[in-house]
Amino acid sequence: MFFPLFPSPTxxxxxxxxxxxAIGALLALNACSEKQDTPAPAPIAVTADAVxxxxxxxxxxxxxxxxxxxxxxGKAFDGSLTTFFDAAPGSGGYVGLELPAGQSKKVVQIRFAxxxxxxxxxxxxxxxxxxxxxxxxxxxxxxxxxxxxxxxQTISVxxxxxxxxxxxxxxxxxxxxxxxxEFYTEGTTTTPTPTDAVSGPPAGTGSWTKSFEDNFDSxxxxxxxxxxxxxxxxxxxxxxxxxxxxxxTYYSPDNVYMADGKLHIRTERKAQGGQxxxxxxxxxxGKTTSRFQQKYGYxxxxxxxxxxxxxxxxxxxxxxxxxxxxxNGNPGQYKxxxxxxxxxxxxxxxxxxxxxxxxxxxxxxxxxxxxxxxxYGVLWEASKATLYIDGVEQGSITxxxxxxxxxxxxxxxxxxxxxxxxxxxxxxxxxxVTQVDWVRVWRKN
Length: 445
Ligand SMILES: [Ca+2]
Ligand SMILES: [Ca+2]
What we know:
Bound molecules: calcium ion
Low-confidence stretches: 2-50, 231-243
CATH class of the largest domain: Mainly Beta
Strand content: 25-35%
Shape: elongated
Largest sheet: 8 strands, antiparallel
Oligomer: single chain
CATH topology of the largest domain: Jelly Rolls
Helix content: under 10%
């Protein structure tokens, strides 16, 4: 789950939604953000069938040197709103994204954040696109005419041309200050045709042993607990307090049930336990000893998520040991690896690695995931995590991969991040039911 950036239950550092891959030795642009930041995706009103803009990925470029070490142009793509680009010269600085060779994209939306408290330095700044090179042939996409406040800003772009180089050019005297920069292209709905047959680790990845399987023909209390792992005897490790509450959601065992060989998780606007919404979760965490935990391997779920603004169906791994307070006194955070997470905005599945005190790393795929069952598999390795859908490789993340065994969790929850990932739960209509046909895990021999 996304435990979005807010103080939440699982990983307070959660929130991701989309992101990119690291290219070369440069950086991984990442769509997600840390707790103090805002989530990634575009704040768009969402319906189940909405096509959500896709964040563009590529290689960062910009002017060098920076005003000081630690202010390089890559800081505009590190997912943190508190780090920023600060070019050495006051004027003439720029920072941008080069798309992979052969790829030119139409930009429909730009998200950015100013250096905190210095939005005035962006007035007159321009977002531009070029098909020629990183340094020439630019056309304006948008000019900033008033000082943005702190935090994420989203603007729509109405320019039908496709470009390979996309950049922000700071106005004179601004040192090209900018904290974050993201370009989005039109979303596509390239939903694969679902098939029951696809299962198991991808070919050519070595030899494997199945370490966990539940086909949900009935509820197996030897494998799962209904509810949230915290509080199930793991209080020393997990300190969220009320074991049955996450975000704005009360977890009732009654909202998890079996039918037609599938696990059903029902999410509804029903007040219980002081929360406005009721849903369900199951976990392999146990009262005193977890029934199943694993680090690395191939993790697979066949599911049909249900989305409505505010919710977040998810299949994920959750290491139970909370990480220590960092050197700056920031509170401890949990690690978390989301294999397949579907925000209430609809139309996006995200795989996200949450490591304490680091920007979230996420890969996401737009499609119609709620109309039918699909098989989502993640090949979790030490330095890479790759998402497969219906047996087809979709994309990877290559930095800050969770490095600790986690219990499995299948859950839904309702929160409200004002539209970024969950969507605004004021628009939640339910009850809605997420169905899971199976969960299978393999360990490399
Ligand atoms: Ca930054
Ligand atoms: Ca089944």
